[in-house]
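Collaborator request log, item 7. Partner lab (contact: R.S.) asked for a structural prediction of cysteine desulfurase to inform their binding assays.
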Amino acid sequence: MEVYLDHAATTPINKAVLEKMLNYLSREFGNPSSIYKSGRNAKLAIEDARNKIAAALKCKCDEIFFTSCATESNNWAIKGCAFNNKDKGNHIITTSIEHESVLKTCSYLEKNGFDVTYLPVDEYGLISIEDLKSAITDKTILISIMFANNEIGTIEPIKEIGEIARKNNIIFHTDAVQAIGKIPIDLKEYNIDLLTLSAHKINGPKGIGALFIRQGLEIETFMHGGSQEKGLRAGTENVAACVGLGVAIEMAMDDIEKRVIKVEKIRNKIINDIYLNIPCCKLNGHSIKRLSNNINFSFTDVNGKILVYMLDKVGIKASSGSACSCGTTKTSHVLLAIGLPEKLATESIRFTIDENITEEEINYFIKNLIFIVDNLRNHNDFSR
Ligand SMILES: *Cc1c(COP(=O)(O)O)cnc(C)c1O
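Returned to partner:
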């Protein structure tokens, strides 16, 4: 049996998404900048996808810009904002639990004359609003805080953060990759100026993302060249992928409330099953302010990476740390930030589900998890 429990790393492409894309990878191959019919059709397809994204976010289609991935969107939002406002100030506020694409962009800016404050988080992964307020200086130009964390699923107080940003006239960017399709987002109510999203986390194709840029907000050009994306992000559009993102986000928003309730129920059952059946374990993250599909556990004396390998042998796909730090021996910066001791941080594993998981799959997963954790612990005992 195959049980895919790594939806935070990537998701399978939806059939309807793929079908809509295929036309633009074969028959309708014209360059969207060309003025003959197949070019115009490609252009129309891109604009239709842009409209779908705008409808999903309840914003204007002029405010949506296609990028090659969320990593690019984060780079563009942060660097574009920093360089455009360097006369106003050089201070940026972010958190210690951001995705690497935010953290490494910030450290690049630090080498280029910017100051960055990395807000700490509490044991659940939440930033403190008081910390945020006291971090603001008259040099602060940007606050970049993720909507929800990809490793432990913690949902940050975005509305309060947006309020503070607006009150202090500071630009607010949020990496909403994990929140799209799981939390209804109101850009206006939350005072969001820049928002990052990615298609492959919502059953769309890899290699396409978008950046919402609030109308009137100026940021630096990211890719210099042609006039695509209003000249701000040049390069011939990835037409099929744009189409795929459009369909994927439309489906992700469809019936979002019902789906979230369903997934939450399944998530809670799995968490309970683990607590009931496996001793010496700890749920990482917040119990309520948590993404509906996220389960992150530490199992004392069970190395997370080894557990991932053992689960894979029986067809169960999970993740230790974040996918990005996989292959390296680096301990998750998120788990360290919530105060886990180094050892327990390496003894952690993330399971991220979706609404299509069956009862049979859940039972198979729980049965194997109990067995493997028990085995690894006993093995550890023998080797001592
Ligand atoms: C996956 C992810 C990214 C990176 O997305 P790509 O499209 O793969 O570059 C950024 N931020 C978060 C929170 C993510 O989960």
